[in-house]
């Protein structure tokens, strides 16, 4: 039978530009590096992409050491990763082009939200307003922020929904 969209269905993905920084990686504190990032919530995965040009740069989008960065380059060159077109994830290319100046972008990093937590960040985490703190089961902590309070409230709700509907198996 043909697929009939249910008007009550929530969109399965959400995307937009947010300011983001890691604060912890593998349970270890890392230096903040606020970056404006194309952000996609797809299922239980939260993905951050560079805005323009694509590719991976060090140190701007990588809080690890140089050897770790080189390793990440290697793993990005797996044939399986190569086959995936750069535009296969995250809302439409148009959405990205209109809000982030176009160009192809590659995922910079992804986090699995299953079993994680989302909360408003306390004042000691950042001096910025509207800051969400995301903690993952893998020991990554992120701050995401927008000056737009409507937008950030939408993200807060979407992230909360994701965590409550995608259980950790
Ligand atoms: O938590 P911190 O250390 O006060 O975070 C600030 C720093 O990352 C700062 O850069 P330097 O490490 O070069 O000082 C950033 O410019 C600030 O934006 C960070 O604080 P906020 O409150 O904006 O998250």
TrEMBL record:
Domain PH: residue ranges: 22-164
Protein name: Rho GTPase-activating protein 12
Entire-sequence positions represented here: 428 to 596 of 864
